[in-house]
Amino acid sequence: MAESVLREVIPPVTEARHRSLWQRAWEAIQLPALALLTAFLVGGFIIALSDFKVLEALADTTSRLNAIGYILLVMTVAVLVGGTAFSRRPEIILSRLRFVGNVGQARWFGVVSAVLTIGAVIGLLVVIGFGPVLWLAWNAVTSAYGALLEGSLGNPLQIVAALSSGDARAIGLAFYPISESLVASTPYIFAGLAVALGFRCGLFNIGAEGQLFIGALTSVFVGYAITGLPAVVHIPLALGAGALGGAIWGLVPGLLKARVGAHEVINTIMMNYIAFRLSEWLLNGPMKRPGAVPVSPFIAESAQLPRLFPDPIRFHLGFFIALGVAAFIWWFLFKSRWGFEIRTVGANPNAARYAGMNIAFNIILAMCMSGALAGLAGANEVLGVNYNLANAFSSGYGFDSIALALLGRSHPLGVVLAGLLFGTLRSGGTRMQNVAQIPIDIIIVIQALVIAFMAAPAIIRAIYRIVKPGEGEVVFTRGWGR
Amino acid sequence: MAPVLELRNITKRFPGVLANDRISLTLEQNEIHALLGENGAGKSTLMNILYGLYQPDEGEIIVRGRPIKIHSPSDAIRAGIGMVHQHFMLVPVLTVAENVMLGDEMLTAGVFLDRRGAAQRIRDLSKQYGLEVDPDAYVKDLPVGVQQRVEIIKLLFRNADILILDEPTAVLTPQEVNDLFKVIRSLVDQGKSLIFITHKLKEVLATADRITVLRAGRVVGSTTPAQTTEASLAAMMVGREVSLEVEKARAKPGEVVLSLEHLEVLDDRLNVAVDDVTLEVRAGEILGVAGVQGNGQTELVEVITGLRRPVSGSIHILGHDVTGASPRRITELGVAHVPEDRQRDGLVLSYPVADNIALQEYYKPPFAKGVVIDEQAIQKEAARLVQQFDVRTPSVQTPAAALSGGNQQKVIVARELSRPVKLLVASQPTRGLDVGSIEYIHQQIVRKRDEGAAVLLISSELDEILALSDRIAVMYRGRVVAVVDAETATKEYLGLLMAGADPATTPAPERRQRVEVVT
């Protein structure tokens, strides 16, 4: 009899598995997607409110408001506050009004009332005379984000025209923005994988930036100091040198953590400074190219990652190497027993020890691999884009990648997607600055908001009223804030 | 008169599980209503619905004849419903009065905390209900039993008259349990009504006015202590007849499997935790280690399983010297370890059940081929063990965190006992589990013994030690003060030794009395 009860309560295994796959996909996507959406919305407000024309129109309209206008304005605020309150917790207010229904119905009331509130507020503002201001603000935001899109993905009309004309040069120009986005994404993918791998082992590798510098230094050295090798040997050698350099830079904090328990956050930050100063010294001394500027010599042509299209498109082999490495990291983490150990150490070090795993070894391994991946990010830039190494060449790939790994939920696939997004934002931001006169800093603001929302998912859950998926949440990292 | 509280057809679904299925329940004025059920039967879900932590999918809650909706604990408090959780929600560094005021501060002149007024009110409440709580004491200095009474005062302070106690006796000593029952009686006598959640049958029969039994999310029956017995309650809970005693034949001890010689171990604060312990466990016998918690049992287990290094002395397993060996080496000699803290050591809660099953043997065939983990093989084995050990889980892909405590423990037991075991080290194997799971795990331990494994059983439940052991070692302040034959040991005698009585002068009992398993 007990069995019959059980069968009703617990659905068959296949069904549960099927549903949980869908659920898992949705759960993995919804928070990052909403975090991004919210960051862009807030970014839009900042763009609108920092636009000179919008502010001027706002001041002008406000100064011409009469008594009725003010009353309407107060009403608008009341509608906004009341509508928001009702949309947020409709079931409470409905139950106070003796409304009998279920929670699902109440939620629909909330969605409808949110739409109505937005409509009513906009309508009232137009009636008061803020229409032109809203229109200007809308224009400012759309032109900024439009430029961002065009600068990163290209102009669809231009692409169609170029393709139909069949002119190779026109096609190249049309696809130039999107190729630049992919070029910018490549180091992000490498560095994001580095941070994500650390997270999986419970390690917070803040040192990706320093490891990236060291990787760039070692690979550029192998690139220019050795000559006369065929490309098939020289390129892997230079990439390997980059990975090795980064791995050594990761090994030090890994050893310190595993042997004496020194916190990796402190030590990776310190290793960053050593890396920056070391590269400055090397570029001003031993590795300096003859001349006034502190730049390394150019690497031999045999060490250059081949570009896959004619100039000016810089898209090179590195992007596919990054995808291959991401696939390997996925296999390593989820299919190999080394990855099983690393993930177990990250998820529950006590259980890992109980199960006979060597915690110190896994920490060191994870830090070395993380460093190697960050080193590859540096090597990729040097061998595929710049062909030499200048001071401060990275401009924060290593630091951005922390946000990126969080956004990608420390999963290689997520990291690739987040890397594509960050690369796109970065290359599109330049055009936005030129065309729409919006400073590229807004991109940094949006990225920062994404980090904030991903680090504090409670904010997103509260805004969109997402019920927390009870158990089995992926633990990104331990020691955040502890 | 209308009941104080009525639940009508409460239904709550979670992904893959129907946690509450049309549950109806009434609580009368001045009544102690016991809610009985195995882990995962839906007791906690139901109470969390009542306390506003979950929303029911269907059904209504009626308080004093009025249907209400409870969206948060503050709504519950407003309706006069208060809950004492199994894990207390107190701030140790604050005083009792400050803890009680927290979130409902009494103020003077609108800004200043009225500590004196609050303390007076606590004193009054304490006197009225016989709680004996000093409002000025710091919570960190209070014993667990008194901390629990502080939680009760918190509810009385907020004028709750429907009190929910979630597994209140799980953390208490027998003496504290008796005190709690007196308090409960006095609360009910003075007009409060009480829901008492538990899976301990004896307590239910001793205190409750009415008993409702839940199983698999449904009400399976309602009764009173006068009309029922322990055995029939157990049967209602589990859904079949349950044996409350462990049946086992006499031990046939074989070769020495584990031998400890003059073992000395330090704890984390570098105090001597295990002091000159010499023990032997033979194949085919169960050696129980009895002792009040904190007398070195934890460290003893850790040192045997390789999680801690001894300062001096030696450990031999099947003749191999494993003093200071790694956990992996010890495991590979055929040692199974059911750890004391299952969530801290025994499981990776975020991993699916299948990966937890593979946790000890993930690195060798059939779970791994070279360096590649064979997920198919792991899932197949997990599915087999889930069925064999009756782990209630929606699938082997479900994260271990989503299982109830008893099922989590079964996952560990399944993993540890499915290997060829020469030595089983089981530490608190049934802590916090329900009757059905306890019975099952006890049977498995005895079965391993009969298959010829040596078993070292550590438990702070004397009844468990007496029911399972062939020999019993008593630990007191890190020393093994006596090793007695389980046939001749009595609860009273062991209790005296555990409390530090000198075995030389304590009169040993002549014949073993019949000992029942407390559930």
Which descriptors apply to this entry?
heterodimer, A: 482 residues, mainly alpha, ABC transporter involved in vitamin B12 uptake, BtuC, 2 domains, 19 helices, 0% strand, globular, disordered C terminus, B: 519 residues, alpha/beta, Rossmann fold, 3 domains, six-stranded mixed sheet, 31% helix
Q: Can you describe what's shown?
A:
The complex is a heterodimer of chains A (482) and B (519). Chain A has 482 residues and is mostly helical. Chain A folds into two domains: 50-140, no CATH class; 178-436, ABC transporter involved in vitamin B12 uptake, BtuC. Chain A is built from 19 helices and no strands. Chain A has helices at 2-9, 13-49, 52-63, 67-88, 90-96, 103-153, 156-165, 168-200, 208-225, 231-260, 264-284, 318-335, 337-347, 349-354, 359-386, 397-407, 412-436, 441-455, 457-464. The longest helix of chain A is centred in the N-terminal third of the chain and has 51 residues, at 103-153. The two termini of chain A are 50 Å apart. The model of chain A is unreliable at 1-18 and 469-482 (pLDDT under 50). Chain B has 519 residues and is an alpha/beta fold. Chain B folds into three domains: 5-238, Rossmann fold (3-Layer(aba) Sandwich), CATH 3.40.50.300; 243-334 and 420-519, P-loop containing nucleotide triphosphate hydrolases (Rossmann fold); 349-414, no CATH class. Chain B contains 17 helices and 24 strands. Mean pLDDT of chain B is 87; it is low at 512-519. At the A-B interface, helix 1, helix 2, helix 5, helix 13 and helix 14 of A face strand 2, helix 10, helix 11 and strand 20 of B.
